[in-house]
Amino acid sequence: MMLVKRLFPSHVSSMGFCSSSAPTLLKSGDILKQARIFSDTDVTEYSKLSYDLNPLHFDSECARNTGFEDRLVPGMLVSSLFPRIIASQFPGAVYVSQTLHFKSPVYMGEEIIGEVQATSIRQMKEKYIAKFATKCFKKGDLVVIDGEAMAILPTLSTEQVQSMV
Q1: d(CA 59, CA 72)
Q2: Side-chain-side CA neighbours of residue 71 (13 Å)
Q3: pTM: predicted TM-score of the whole model, two decimal places
Q4: Which end of the chain is more exposed for a tag (fewer CB within 10 A), N or C?
């Protein structure tokens, strides 16, 4: 099963489930994805919240002098796709842990595909602990971030939830 939602700074459009009487349940191996294009406004708003004022995010000349093509999108902003994907499918999920490995730079205006793949799921009373392999891609299959996440899910039934951008 593959579930996809595309997210852009000004709007959200959903692709995925058709109406059916049977709920779709998350199982090991399932992949959930969202696409996002990060803008200058996204980076500015992120920096206001995080106090990340690294000139690599705001000064093209500084970024080029450091060996990059242009200004970078902060890696932590890009990695925010992972909890967003999980929360959009499982409202009430508790994000427990995340490891991250930054593999390649992300520049403003590039489409990034965030992907979480369920690798293990176990029941804990009336909730579920799910472990996910996490990856972000650009230009098709170029990995920009990878890692693992763990979340406590209230249910294994996936939902299409309208996200706030």
Answers
A1: 9
A2: 17
A3: 0.82
A4: C
Beta partners for residue 116, in sequence order:
32, 134
Q: What does the block give as tokens for 61?
A: 């000349």
Separation of alpha carbons 150 and 86, rounded Å: 10
DSSP 98: E
DSSP secondary structure letters along 19-78: P-SSPPB--TT-EEEEEEE--HHHHHHHHHHH----GGGT-HHHHHHTT-SSPBPPHHHH
Per-residue pLDDT of the chain (165 residues; tens, 9 = 90+): 444 443 333 323 233 333 344 568 999 999 999 999 999 999 999 999 999 999 999 999 999 999 999 999 999 999 999 999 999 999 999 999 999 999 999 999 999 999 999 999 999 999 999 999 999 999 999 999 999 999 999 999 987 544 434
Residue 77 has which token pair?
């902003």
